[in-house]
Every structure is written in structure tokens, then in C-alpha cells.
């Protein structure tokens, strides 16, 4: 199959915000206990943090990690997780016993070790604005006041300086502790935002949007929240977990179409509210939970039976899942004007990029596209005009085989191109054509592919789905990249000259 992607450096959708390559870590299953934190493990440092896990996380180049939930946060009292007295409590969300030995200060240490920054979620389910503001005081203030002093007493003389804050989690969902109607949440979130920002005007705030497109209140919830909170927030959150429960690979691989349409929905809604309010203020999307999740979902996989660190929702990721994850990132890059933050949900053991055993870690298939994109998608997002053969993707109708995004670093003049081939049986030769530039150097290509969409990395065979070197050709300024079937190709370090 042949396809063409036409680019022009004047046609871009703005700066790619590196925060779209953030992650999410929740107190859930073996994510914290037996995952990032395991004092009894030989790989752990004096703080009980597993350094091998931390090293894998560093390899993902995440600017921010969202914490501590998720559903967990809506019944969590952060005050139980700081200081010398830690008592276990029953976690409503996942029916586990939370020992509280890992809390805010331990998370800050983990972030430093990994080389990322905290994005803290506050409980607006069972707690409220006062406790949220107290957490801002604890983390960010240098005052002689109760919670700032408590932080110093607990061993952190300097503020943690947390820049990003989520105002609750999925409050539209009946499963959420403290679930409430949109108007009620919006008022609560606005009150929390005002208190929190009153203490630290530099913070950025994310209101909880719809928990998914499947919700009856999708967009209506978001509209109500945006209309009430508009001037008090920087972001509205979006969440999605993709499924191939129908076991239909071609249709699953057209998932990018749905991701695009969600971003269109939010772009339209945000523009609408901005217009109604005649406001100079801007609000962007924080897509702070996204991933594939359907194999280890529901029933016993989500019931911790009151144990600590049980193996919950430990999804095994394969090649087709990795290709769908790459499509999320292509969509985020293409809509750089709308999405400024996004978090892979999640990172360790729970619907995770990395699995742990006492003796080591396993990078799942989805780890690799994330690490490639977060490293190489720098600069502005070029708008790709894709000329590709199409296929019938069922409910998703006629879809391009080739999905593309591109970045251009104006300073270095280098470009990266991210291509996915949705075909299950045809390799693609994709020609890259710049209408305002001449390609002078073809850069290097890394591909991920395989014959079987279900191919996964296992403890016995950890390198089944990993990047390998790909092939490209530069002939008379025309760059052609080979994108294998069921595959993706990330081409980096492409240099260009302006056309004479
Ligand atoms: O990431 C797992 C769960 O999915 C989160 O706790 C919740 O926010 C979402 O429903």
C-alpha cells in the first residue's frame, strides 16, 4: 500500500505541551504497595521506594504524575497519610485496606527520584474545600501556620511547590464516593478553587469533567461545570478507556477516530462556553486518564476483599493495545491547541506500562510508544494532510489505514513524524512531502510491529513487542518511510532546508 503525508511548517496547531506525556498513579491494587513502594524488597532504597521501578518510570520522561486517585481520592483523607501516626483505613473504591504508610511526603520523594512533578488530586467527594486548601497549605506554603509547620515537622523544610491540582475525580459517576449533580459539584469545585488559589495564586486547576463518552450526562456535565467554574480553572478533565471486548482488531485499530471526535467535542464545548461568557480566559483539556482497559475489568478484578496491595486490574497489554495507545498520542499532538495535559492511566501493575515481581520489572508493550513519543514530540504540532487508502471499520465507517502526527522543533529545525499503519495485512510505504521545505536528512526510524495483534511481552519473553530499527529512503528530497502492517514508525531527527 502507498500513502502520502503532506506537511508545511506554516500550518501548525501550536506548541505541543510536554505535559501531554504525563502519567497517573493511584492507590489501587499493587500500584503503590508492592509496586512503587516495597520496603522489604531488595531493590528498594532506604525510603522503601523500589529503584528499579523508579528507573523504568524515568525512562517514560513524564513531566507530571497525577496522584493519589482516581476513585481512591474521593474517600481519602490526606491527613491520615502524613506524619508519624499512620493508621489503616478501609478504601471504599477498591475494597482494600489502605495502610497509609505511603502518603503525600513519600510521593514527593518518589517524584524527585523519578524526575517528575506531582499533580495532586483533592477529595471533593467525602471532604471539601477546607481540606483541599489545607493540603495546598501543607504542600506549598512557607507560613508559620498549622499545616505548613506540620510539613516541616514531617521532614520537608521546603515547600513541595505542587503546581497542578485536580478538583476531585469523576464526580459525575454514581460509583464515585460523594457523587453529586453537576451544579452541586461545580459550586463545590469553584469554592475549592478559590480557597486553594487564595493560598497559592500560582497553581493551575483542573475541574473534573465527564468520566467518559458513555455517560448519559456526557458534555452536559462538562457544560455545567465550565459555565460555573470558567474563571477559576485552567483545565477540564476528560477520561477514556478503550476496549476490544468484541475482539475485532480492524475496528479496534480505528479507535483514533473516536479519540479525535472526543477532542472535537471538547473543543466545540469550550469554544461555546467561552463565547457565551465573552471571556478572554482560556480553558484547555486535561485528558488525565487514558489507556486501553477491558481484559481485567469488573467483578473480582476490582474487589480487594480488604487486603493490602492485592493484584487488581492487572491488564496484560499486547501489540494492538500499543498501537491504540500510539493513536491517543497522535490525537493529542494533532489537537495541541486543545489538549495541554494528558496522563497515561496507569503506570505500575494496575492497567500499567510496567509490571513488577519481587525480582524485577517487565515493560509492557504500551511502555514503548509512550517513551518514544514523550522523547521525540517536541516543538509545534504540524498539521498533516494524510492521503491514505481506507478500510471499512464497522461502526467507525471508512477509516484511513494511516494515522499520522508530526512535530517541528523550530529551534533545532528538526522534525519527528509518528505514523501508525492500521492494516492487519499490508505494509505501507508512506511518502513525506513538505510543501515549503526540502528534506536534507532522513533521520532514523524506529518501528514496532508483529504478525500477531495479540503478541505481548511476558516474563519469559520480555522483548516480543519492542521498538526495532525501521527503514526509510531519501531520494531527491523525497522521504519514504516503511510502516509495517500492524505497526507504527517513529522517525526522528529529520532535517530540512527552506525551499529556494
Ligand atoms: O484508573 C482506574 C479508575 O478508572 C480510576 O480510579 C477512575 O478515575 C476511573 O474510573
Report on this structure.
With 500 residues, the protein is of the alpha/beta class. It folds into two domains: 2-10 and 381-498, Immunoglobulin-like; 17-377, Glycosidases (TIM Barrel, Alpha-Beta Barrel). Helices cover 24% and strands 28% of the residues. It has helices spanning 51-58, 104-114, 129-140, 146-153, 182-199, 220-229, 249-252, 255-277, 319-334, 367-376, and strands at residues 2-7, 12-15, 22-24, 64-67, 89-91, 96-98, 117-122, 164-167, 204-207, 235-242, 284-292, 339-345, 354-357, 360-363, 380-382, 385-387, 390-392, 398-400, 402-409, 414-421, 428-434, 437-441, 444-448, 468-469, 472-475, 478-483, 487-498. Alpha-L-arabinofuranose is lined by residues 26, 69-71, 169-170, 211, 289, 345-346.
Keywords:
alpha/beta; TIM Barrel; 8-stranded parallel β-barrel; 2 domains; 27 strands; 10 helices; Immunoglobulin-like; globular; single chain; binds alpha-L-arabinofuranose; 8-stranded antiparallel β-sheet; 500 residues
How far apart are the termini? 32 Å
Biggest sheet architecture:
8 strands, antiparallel
Helix content estimate: 10-25%
The unreliable regions are none
List cofactors, ions and other ligands.
alpha-L-arabinofuranose
Task: Please report the number of helical segments.
Answer: 10
So, the CATH homologous superfamily of the largest domain?
Glycosidases
- What fraction of the residues are assigned to beta strands by DSSP? 25-35%
CATH architecture of the largest domain: Alpha-Beta Barrel
The CATH class of the largest domain:
Alpha Beta
CATH topology of the largest domain: TIM Barrel
User: Which overall shape is indicated by the principal axes computed on the Cα atoms?
Assistant: globular
Mean pLDDT: 97
* Radius of gyration using CA atoms only: 22 Å
Total strand count, please? 27
- Our count of domains comes out at 2
Kindly name the structural category: alpha/beta
Amino acid at each position: 500500500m502507498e500513502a502520502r503525508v503532506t506537511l508545511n511548517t506554516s500550518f501548525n496547531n501550536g506548541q505541543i505541551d510536554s505535559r501531554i506525556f504525563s502519567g497517573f498513579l493511584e492507590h489501587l491494587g499493587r500500584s503503590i504497595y508492592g509496586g512503587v513502594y516495597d520496603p522489604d524488597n531488595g531493590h528498594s532504597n532506604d525510603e522503601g521506594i523500589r529503584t528499579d521501578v523508579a528507573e523504568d518510570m524515568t525512562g517514560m520522561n513524564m513531566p507530571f504524575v497525577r496522584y493519589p486517585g482516581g476513585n481512591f481520592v474521593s474517600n481519602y483523607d490526606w491527613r491520615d497519610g502524613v506524619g508519624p501516626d499512620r493508621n489503616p483505613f478501609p478504601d471504599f473504591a477498591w475494597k482494600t485496606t489502605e495502610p497509609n504508610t505511603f502518603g503525600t511526603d513519600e510521593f514527593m520523594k518518589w517524584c524527585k527520584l523519578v524526575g517528575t512533578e506531582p499533580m495532586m488530586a483533592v477529595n471533593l467527594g467525602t471532604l471539601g474545600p477546607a481540606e483541599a486548601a489545607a493540603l495546598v497549605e501543607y504542600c506549598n506554603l512557607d507560613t508559620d501556620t498549622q499545616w505548613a509547620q506540620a510539613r516541616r515537622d514531617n521532614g520537608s523544610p521546603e515547600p513541595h511547590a505542587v503546581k497542578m491540582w485536580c478538583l476531585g475525580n469523576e464526580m459525575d459517576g454514581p460509583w464515585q464516593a460523594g457523587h453529586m449533580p453537576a451544579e452541586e459539584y461545580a459550586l463545590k469545585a469553584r469554592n475549592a478553587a478559590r480557597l486553594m488559589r487564595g493560598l497559592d495564586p500560582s497553581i493551575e486547576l483542573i475541574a473534573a469533567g465527564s468520566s467518559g463518552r458513555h455517560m448519559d450526562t456526557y458534555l452536559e456535565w462538562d457544560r455545567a461545570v465550565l459555565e460555573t467554574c470558567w474563571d477559576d480553572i485552567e483545565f477540564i478533565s476528560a477520561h477514556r478507556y478503550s476496549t476490544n471486548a468484541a475482539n475485532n482488531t480492524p475496528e479496534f485499530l480505528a479507535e483514533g477516530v473516536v479519540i479525535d471526535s472526543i477532542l472535537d467535542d471538547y473543543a466545540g464545548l469550550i469554544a461555546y462556553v467561552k463565547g457565551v461568557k465573552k471571556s478572554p480566559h482560556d480553558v484547555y483539556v486535561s485528558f488525565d486518564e487514558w489507556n486501553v482497559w477491558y481484559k481485567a475489568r469488573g467483578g473480582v478484578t476490582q474487589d480487594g476483599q480488604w487486603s493490602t496491595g492485592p493484584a487488581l486490574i492487572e491488564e496484560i497489554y499486547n501489540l494492538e493495545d500499543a498501537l491504540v495507545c500510539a493513536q491517543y498520542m497522535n490525537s493529542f499532538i494533532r489537537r495541541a491547541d486543545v489538549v495541554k495535559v494528558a496522563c497515561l492511566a496507569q503506570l505500575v501493575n494496575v492497567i500499567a506500562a510496567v509490571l513488577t515481581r519481587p525480582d524485577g520489572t517487565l515493560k509492557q508493550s504500551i511502555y514503548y510508544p509512550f517513551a518514544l513519543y514523550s522523547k521525540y514530540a517536541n516543538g509545534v504540532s504540524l498539521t498533516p494532510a494524510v492521503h491514505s487508502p481506507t478500510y471499512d471499520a464497522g461502526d467507525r465507517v471508512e477509516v484511513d489505514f494511516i494515522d499520522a502526527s508530526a512535530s517541528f522543533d523550530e529551534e533545532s529545525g528538526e522534525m519527528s513524524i509518528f505514523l501508525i499503519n492500521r492494516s492487519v495485512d499490508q505494509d505501507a510505504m508512506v511518502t513525506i512531502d513538505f510543501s515549503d521545505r526540502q528534506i536534507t536528512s532522513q533521520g532514523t526510524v524506529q518501528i514496532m510491529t508483529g504478525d500477531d495483534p495479540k503478541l505481548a511481552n511476558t516474563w519469559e519473553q520480555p522483548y516480543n513487542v519492542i521498538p526495532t530499527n525501521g527503514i526509510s529512503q531519501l531520494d531527491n528530497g523525497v522521504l519514504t518511510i516503511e510502516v509495517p502492517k500492524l505497526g507504527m514508525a517513529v522517525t526522528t531527527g529529520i532535517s530540512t532546508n527552506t525551499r529556494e
